[in-house]
């Protein structure tokens, strides 16, 4: 076991992927000499060279478009979008080209492009640096979307993304980059598209992913002090979603709270709520509730603490479902 931050775990995972796949290369703004604004790619250019760790112009559409071409020629491009809100100049290439190539060619072509996107708030940054756009991409068929919440998953998920034949977006929770945890570098990793039960419980289920997983666990610990047993599920994959694991939990607990940083309106939580209502309606003891951001542009740094879902808001939702 090794103790790493999430940022270091991704760095080591990228190092392992570049070593295992000679055709893999990194592309992004300031990822080479600087090592990325979060230093996630630090040291990789020195080890693998400028031809495999490529500093690109400030042009996300160019990054994604070039990566698609490289993938079609047999390379394994790993793109970094410097901040979540910067991805939209490349949105067209991702949703209308990258996601469609396999189907458009009737399975003849694959485009194994990995797109790393630091996402979410909590870092006190300016506009376009704290978005949670995962639902926009999950709505597009043909993309796989995963998000780690701990260093162990971060280390393995990035390697699994590179090895996947499909395009994969890896949303990295930026305010958790410095979260430390154990990483088993010799483990046989679980599928990145499978949810994980982090804490078992019998009275209610909390489903979260990415940056809100630590908050969900804290809520379960707080509820336990009052005698309430809460099961916590780390979704891990946003597309596809492991509905089987969530359904099995809700059939047991009868209550479900879904938490994510993104606005609840049009968010991933709405899809989960609808599916679980279809699958487990007769086992539900209360309506499914959602905890998320508000349906408004991400606020300024001075007020983001009021925008981000926190412990109190998750506990309030738990109280609501337990009151039925």
Automatic annotation (TrEMBL):
Enzyme kind, highest EC tier: oxidoreductase
SMART domains reported in the protein's UniProt record: Transket_pyr (SM00861)
Entry annotated with the keyword S-adenosyl-L-methionine: no
Signal sequence, start to end: none
Cofactor: thiamine diphosphate
InterPro entries the record matches: THDP-binding, Transketo_C/PFOR_II, Transketolase-like_Pyr-bd, Transketolase_C
Keywords: Oxidoreductase
Coiled-coil stretches: none
Domain Transketolase-like pyrimidine-binding: 4-179
Enzyme Commission code(s) on record: 1.2.4.4
A family per Pfam: Transket_pyr
Name of this chain's protein: 3-methyl-2-oxobutanoate dehydrogenase (2-methylpropanoyl-transferring)
Organism: Arthrobacter parietis
């Amino acid at each position: 076991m090794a103790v790493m931050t999430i940022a270091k775990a991704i760095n080591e995972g990228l190092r392992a992927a570049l070593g295992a796949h000679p055709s893999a290369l990194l592309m992004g703004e300031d990822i080479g000499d600087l090592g990325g604004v979060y230093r996630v790619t630090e040291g990789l250019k020195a080890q693998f060279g400028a031809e495999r760790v490529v500093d690109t112009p400030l042009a996300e559409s160019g990054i994604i478009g070039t990566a698609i071409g490289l993938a079609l020629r047999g390379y394994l491009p790993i793109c970094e979008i410097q901040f979540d809100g910067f991805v939209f100049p490349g949105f067209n290439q991702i949703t209308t080209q990258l996601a469609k190539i396999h189907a458009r060619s009737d399975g003849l072509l694959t485009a194994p492009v990995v797109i790393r996107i630091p996402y979410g708030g909590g870092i006190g940054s300016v506009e376009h640096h704290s978005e949670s756009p995962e639902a926009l991409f999950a709505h597009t068929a043909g993309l796989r979307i995963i998000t780690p919440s701990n260093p162990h998953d971060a280390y393995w998920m990035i390697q699994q993304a590179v090895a996947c034949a499909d395009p994969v977006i890896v949303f990295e929770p930026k305010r958790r980059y410095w979260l430390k945890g154990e990483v088993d570098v010799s483990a046989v990793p679980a599928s990145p598209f499978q949810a994980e039960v982090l804490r078992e419980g019998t009275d209610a289920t909390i489903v979260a992913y990415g940056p809100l997983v630590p908050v969900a666990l804290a809520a379960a610990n707080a509820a336990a002090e009052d005698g309430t047993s809460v099961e916590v599920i780390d979704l891990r994959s946003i597309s596809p979603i492991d509905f089987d694991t969530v359904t099995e939990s809700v059939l047991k607990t009868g209550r479900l709270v879904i938490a994510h940083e993104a606005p609840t309106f049009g968010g991933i939580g709405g899809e989960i709520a609808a599916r679980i209502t279809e699958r487990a309606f007769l086992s539900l003891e209360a309506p499914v509730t959602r905890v998320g951001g508000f349906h408004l542009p991400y606020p300024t740094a001075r007020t983001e603490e009021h925008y981000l879902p926190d412990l109190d808001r998750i506990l309030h939702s738990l109280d609501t479902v337990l009151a039925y």
